[in-house]
Design goal:
Distance between the termini: 46 Å
Radius of gyration: 20 Å
Strand content: 15-25%
Shape: globular
Largest sheet: 9 strands, mixed
Number of helices: 12
């Protein structure tokens, strides 16, 4: 059973659930120590091609996968045969295997790899090192890793970390600085930042500027601002939305900011597999409002084929404020 992301993770000071946080804190110390030991003791393999890692400092919900898609798009526009590499979270196949959208399902390879495979060659592998080598043997000239900042098994040419830039309504993307499960951080902030070459600060499309106090935490690292911008307008007419992503409440806000006539919204845990009963309940709820159903591309990839014609996928893309800065980072990664 998948659990939803705790909202209290993203409160900077005086978060609720003090007893839960106190009980979870010793576990967070163990988590951080195990992560640090694994990183220190692992000797990374060199797959023979540049590796750009797009990772997180926190647990999910930052807009990492749209960044991976954008980097693959830019590299391939340069005539670099760039492939994506993912763990295939939520899928049953161990890999290494190249994702085939015509043959594989999200249940086999994971929702994000299946979504990305529509635009570029994508490999999934529980063992990232084996996946990187397989992609290199298949002719990849560069690899873009979706997640893996805390995975030391593959030598990284460029390490980017994506940070949620939403700080409105009392939210703080790093919480009170606690490590999982007492907070959202995967490792202590200074430790994770030390291995990063740059930070991508992901803002909602309706937020004018990044919070200077948040940007100041990344002093000494290049900070690129990007936004998750709609590729198309939301579907017309009344809609009932749903999403099973790291921070489903951000999808609700984005739909509303884009002008969607949103009558109701149902949040689900990240990577939720939708069964018939759940989908029928959503359809019944939409019928109550005379509304359509709308969800994310990632959720749409997990839908049974018979439901895809009944539900609209609303795509978003990572749009960077400073194209030249991003291109300079890519130059650094792929040029000898």
């Amino acid at each position: 059973m998948k659990l939803s992301t705790p909202r209290w993770w993203y409160v900077r000071e005086g978060a609720p659930a003090p007893v839960s946080r106190a009980l979870l804190t010793p576990i967070s110390w163990i988590w951080a120590a195990v992560t640090a030991r694994r990183i220190a003791r692992t000797v990374p393999i060199d797959p023979g091609v540049p590796v750009i890692c797009v990772g997180n400092l926190t647990a999910g919900g930052t807009g990492k996968t749209p960044v991976v898609r954008e980097l693959l798009k830019r590299l391939r526009a340069r005539h670099v045969d760039a492939h994506g590499l993912s763990k295939g979270y939520g899928g049953t196949l161990e890999g290494p295997v190249q994702v085939d959208p015509a043959r594989h399902t999200a249940a086999e390879v994971g929702d994000e790899p299946l979504m990305l495979a529509a635009d570029a060659p994508i490999w999934i592998s529980r063992d990232r090192a084996k996946g990187a080598l397989a992609a290199g043997w298949a002719g990849a000239q560069a690899l873009v890793m979706d997640d893996g900042h805390q995975n030391p098994s593959v030598r990284k040419t460029l390490s980017l970390v994506v940070v949620d830039g939403e700080t409105r309504n009392g939210e703080w993307p790093l919480g009170d600085g606690s490590v999982f499960p007492a907070g959202p951080l995967r490792e202590p902030l200074d430790v994770g930042l030390a291995r990063a070459d740059a930070v991508i600060l992901m803002l909602p499309s309706d937020l004018d500027a990044a919070d200077p106090e948040l940007v100041a935490l990344f002093a000494g690292k290049p900070v690129l601002v990007a936004r998750l911008a709609p590729v198309a307008a939301p579907p017309p007419g009344p809609q009932v939305g749903f999403a099973g992503v790291g921070k489903p409440w951000k999808v609700e806000r984005s739909l509303q900011a884009a002008g969607c006539d949103l009558k109701d919204f149902a949040p689900f845990p990240d990577h939720r597999a939708y069964d018939e009963a759940t989908l029928q309940a959503l359809a019944d709820r939409a019928a109550d409002f005379g509304a359509g159903l709308v969800t994310t591309e990632k959720d749409w990839a997990r839908l049974p084929p018979e439901w895809r014609a009944k539900i609209t996928a609303w795509p978003v893309a990572a749009v960077f404020e400073d194209d030249a800065a991003l291109e300079a980072l890519l130059d650094r990664a792929i040029r000898p």
